[in-house]
Amino acid sequence: MKDYLIFSDLDGTLLDHNNYTFDQALPALNWIKKKNIPLILASSKTYEEMLHLQSELMIDHPFIFENGSGIHFQKKIIQFGFNLSLIHNKIDPLKREFNFNFYTKLNIKEVMGLTGLNEQQAEASQKRLFSDPIIWLDRDDKQYEFIKIITDLGFNVIKGGRFLTICSHHDKSNALKWIKNAYEKQHKTSFFTIGLGDGENDIKMIEASDIKILIKNNNDHLKQANWIFSKQTAPKGWNDELLKVLKNE
């Protein structure tokens, strides 16, 4: 059997898009554990949120947080993104021209109202290190100018369903390559990568993987000819496609 590294997004990929459960993925999760295959989670979630999820999944592998701005590897944090203070210092002055707020500066009740998270989860989601979502409160037609200014300042802007996230130009694919290289140096062997995701911010990570799996989630437009596209949504689709790959090697 090949030496595998599995890189997986969370929401809508391994976790159910609506209730964040992973029960239907337990057969594949148990198979991975039995075969000692590292499952490397990759998400926009914070370091604190990822530690909690690792505990729930009962795994202790490296993980990628804040969309690749940071890596947890061998009990250390590897920083790729900008410090949060730098982001705030550079972008705060733009409040003179635009109406917006930083996610990390909202009060807990505002975060809970925006996200549906409970108080503990909301607190963990605000403990950001190297990126910060923006709550846009201005006219839609001013957003393009805002993004252009931020880009000119050297930042990257990831446009999501709810927020504009300000971060560095490092993404999940950069983090994947860094971890793969570290594993190969450490173990003195080549590793075969499997990448699983469901959204726009997973595309580069999937493309950087040897086996490319897109989990169904109203995302037919993201399909590529050489990708595996799951028949089921998360977590069933994650479970089924991963077991097919690993058991049919």
Describe the protein's architecture and organization.
This protein is α/β, with parallel strands linked by helices and 249 residues long. The strands form 2 sheets. The chain has an 8-stranded mixed β-sheet with strand order 5-4-3-2-1-10-11-12, sandwiched between helices. Strands 6-7-9-8 form a 4-stranded antiparallel β-sheet, with helices on one face. 35% of the residues lie in helices and 19% in strands. It is built from 9 helices and 12 strands. Helix 8 links the parallel strand 10 and strand 11. Helix 1 packs parallel to helix 9. The protein starts with a strand and ends with a helix. It folds into 2 domains: 154 residues, 3-Layer(aba) Sandwich (Rossmann fold), CATH 3.40.50.1000; 84 residues, Threonyl-tRNA Synthetase, Chain A, domain 2 (2-Layer Sandwich).
Overview features:
single chain; 249 residues; alpha/beta; Rossmann fold; Threonyl-tRNA Synthetase, Chain A, domain 2; eight-stranded mixed sheet; four-stranded antiparallel sheet; 9 helices; 35% helix
Give a concise summary.
By secondary structure, this protein is α/β, with parallel strands linked by helices. Helix content is 35%, strand content 19%.
Mind sketching the topology for me?
Blueprint (H helix, E strand, L loop, with lengths): L3 E5 L17 H9 L4 E4 L4 H11 L5 E3 L4 E4 L2 E4 L4 H8 L8 E3 L5 H8 L3 H7 L6 E5 L6 H10 L3 E4 L4 E4 L4 H16 L4 E6 L5 H5 L3 E4 L13 E2 L6 H12 L2
Low-confidence stretches: none
Number of domains: 2
Say which CATH homologous superfamily of the largest domain is assigned.
HAD superfamily/HAD-like
Indicate the percent of residues in helices: 25-40%
Mean pLDDT: 95
Q: What would you say the CATH architecture of the largest domain is? A: 3-Layer(aba) Sandwich
User: Widest sheet: strand order?
Assistant: 5-4-3-2-1-10-11-12
As for the CATH topology of the largest domain, it is Rossmann fold
Instruction: Please identify the top-level CATH class of the largest domain.
Output: Alpha Beta
* Helix and strand element order: EHEHEEEHEHHEHEEHEHEEH
